[in-house]
Amino acid sequence: MIESLYKADDSRYDNGMKYRRCGRSGILLPEISLGMWHNFGEVDPLSRSKEIMRYAFDHGITAFDLANNYGPSYGTAEETFGYVFNKSFRPYRDEMFIASKAGYDMYPGPYGNWGSRKYLMASLNQSLKRMGLEYVDVFYSHRYDPETPLEETLQALVDIVRQGKAIYAGISRWPLEATKFALSYLKERDVPCLLYQGRLNMIDREVIESGVLDEVDKNGCGFVSFSPLAQGILTNRYLDGIPEGSRASLGRSLNPSLLTPTLIDKLKHLNDIASDRGQTLAEMALSWVLNDRRVTSVIVGCSSVNQLADSIRSVKCTDFTETELKTIDSILK
Ligand SMILES: NC(=O)c1ccc[n+]([C@@H]2O[C@H](COP(=O)([O-])OP(=O)(O)OC[C@H]3O[C@@H](n4cnc5c(N)ncnc54)[C@H](OP(=O)(O)O)[C@@H]3O)[C@@H](O)[C@H]2O)c1
To answer: Which end of the chain is more exposed for a tag (fewer CB within 10 A), N or C?
Structure first.
């Protein structure tokens, strides 16, 4: 079949997307980034993946978040990205901010997991090949490894940047003490940590409570929030049961047993507040994260263009009244 040619929308930077400075760096990121953990693997329709990616770019989403093992199967989200990039986005490479990561289970044997220099370097080479890229914009250590010396993991990030295979370095899900070490190690080597990636949403505020978000902010590092919709819980997706095809129905990363009647009741309450604000629950959940000015961008997942369009609307209103914030807190207590 002949692919339709793609020309990016000329008004892509004028149709509402807002950009935030990433820590104390030269980089601006869109308030909404597109995450490709689910829905872009080989099991998902390529035509839909392409449609979502094009819609994202046409609406000012310049940041695409990947990792070596996104799929399923592992590696296939990067393959999908590479396929669509090659057909649609190659002329726009310099307008895109593409992330990959390594740190979780990827390939068999002792060198396909955690934080060794060998794993990070080999995995990034594989990711570049799958995506058809010469470099990524940011490469993350996907998780803290308690066994590998932190210096080894961090020096691998420094060397990857010096080799030109990534423009910036980042860390994801590192605990506070290790984060402090990473921020100063990378800074001393003139490869300052551009981004910390952590889970932050109305339900899960661990990065705030542990002091990670403050530490990152104090050190001039940006923060991007993953699973800002709690994998779909903080949307209207489950208000009336578990729809077929939804993430909870697939039983991969979202355990349906989390969706207790008590939680659904709280979500309905939150949904009412969202309606009063003129937003959907998903919009309000994203606006809530973006209300914290230490957050550079929220990385949203989606399984349709409509969901993405809804999520993008959240940037219109990221302010909350004190009463709204207090009511949200009291519901989720
Ligand atoms: N660093 C890390 O360790 C890490 C970990 C997790 C994620 N991430 C990154 O963060 C990204 C986002 O995480 P996530 O996929 O868990 O994100 P999420 O944004 O919290 O949830 C996405 C899911 O919510 C549902 N949804 C999205 N928009 C909706 C809307 N407007 N209305 C109703 N439902 C909506 C969809 O569920 P259905 O699919 O059921 O339709 C979608 O798949 C990932 O893709 C990945 O790039 C990083």
So the answer is: N
Whether the bond into 73 is cis, omega within 30 of 0? yes
87-100 per-position pLDDT tens digit: 999 999 999 999 99
Q: Above 60 in pLDDT, residue 1?
A: no
Mean pLDDT of the chain: 97
Specify the residue with its C-alpha closest to ligand 1, atom 11.
Answer: 35
Burial of 56 (0-12, 13-18, 19+ CB in 10 A): buried
CB of 222 within 6 A of ligand 1: the answer is no
At 55-113, the pLDDT tens digits run: 999 999 999 999 999 999 999 999 999 999 999 999 999 999 999 999 999 999 999 99
Residues of the chain with pLDDT > 70, as a percent, come to 99
State which ligand 1 atom lies nearest to the alpha carbon of 201.
20
279 found inside a domain: no
Instruction: Indicate which CATH number applies to the domain containing 84.
Output: 3.20.20.100
Q: Cα 21–189–112 angle (5° rounding)?
A: 90
Whether 313 lines ligand 1, by a CB cut-off of 6 Å, is no
C-alpha to C-alpha distances, 82 to 127, 188, 192, 300, nearest whole angstrom: 10, 34, 28, 20
**Does residue 330 lie within any of the structural domains?**
no
Establish whether residue 60 lines the binding site of ligand 1, counting it when its CB lies within 6 angstroms of any ligand atom: no
Is residue 31 a part of any domain in this protein?
Answer: yes
* Ligand 1: centre distance to CA 189 (Å): 34
Whole-number Å distance, alpha carbon 226 to ligand 1 midpoint, is 8
